[in-house]
Specification:
39% helix; Molybdenum Cofactor Biosythetic Enzyme, Chain A; alpha/beta; 164 residues; MoaB/Mog-like_dom_sf; MoaB/Mog_dom
Length: 164
C-alpha cells in the first residue's frame, strides 16, 4: 500500500575532493535521480568535508529539518578520515543490519571492493516522525547499489514506523 504523502530525502555527500573543487559531485545528482524514480521528493544535495564533527552536525541539522530519508555518500571505507559510520551510530535508535547486508550483496555483485564499505542503515526512532539514515559508498556505483536496495523497501519501512 502506498503512503499517503511523498517521502522527502536529503543527500549528504562527504568528500574533501568535492569540497576542494578537485572533482565535481556526481554522486548527489545520481542519488536525486534514482530516488525520484521511487517517488521521493529530494532536496538539493549538500557536500561536506570528511570529518566526524562535520558529519555529526550535518546529520543533526538534517534530522531536525524533518527529512524522512537521509543518505550519506562517502566516508565508509578504512582511511583515517572515513568516519561516517562512527558519526552516524549515535543518531540511530535501531540499526537495520539486514538492509545493510542487502546493500553489501548488491555491491559485491558489481565490484568485489564493495566488501570494504562499513555503511550503517537504521532509523532515528520507532514512530511516525522517525527518519531512515543510510550510509552509502561515495561513488555512483555505490549509491546506485544502495538505492536499488532501499527504494523498494521505503513504503514498508515507513508503514512500520506508523506512516499511512
Amino acid at each position: 500500500m502506498p503512503l499517503s504523502k511523498p517521502l522527502t530525502a536529503k543527500i549528504i555527500v562527504i568528500s574533501d575532493y568535492v569540497i576542494d573543487g578537485v572533482r565535481p559531485d556526481e554522486v548527489g545528482p545520481a542519488a536525486v535521480e534514482l530516488l525520484a524514480t521511487f517517488g521521493v521528493d529530494v532536496g538539493e544535495p549538500i557536500a561536506i568535508p570528511e570529518n566526524k564533527e562535520a558529519i555529526s552536525v550535518a546529520l543533526k541539522t538534517t534530522i531536525e529539518q524533518g527529512y524522512d530519508i537521509i543518505i550519506t555518500a562517502g566516508g565508509v571505507g578504512l582511511k583515517p578520515n572515513n568516519l561516517t559510520p562512527e558519526a552516524t551510530r549515535p543518531f540511530l535508535n535501531a540499526e537495520l543490519p539486514g538492509i545493510a547486508t542487502q546493500v553489501l550483496l548488491e555491491g559485491i555483485k558489481n565490484d568485489s571492493h564493495a566488501g570494504l564499505a562499513r555503511g550503517l542503515v537504521g532509523v532515528t526512532g520507532r514512530n511516525d516522525t522517525s527518519a531512515l539514515v543510510v550510509n552509502s559508498a561515495g561513488c555512483v556505483d555505490g549509491i546506485t547499489d544502495t538505492i536499488t536496495v532501499i527504494g523498494p523497501l521505503l513504503s514498508d519501512i515507513f508503514q512500520q514506523l506508523g506512516r499511512s
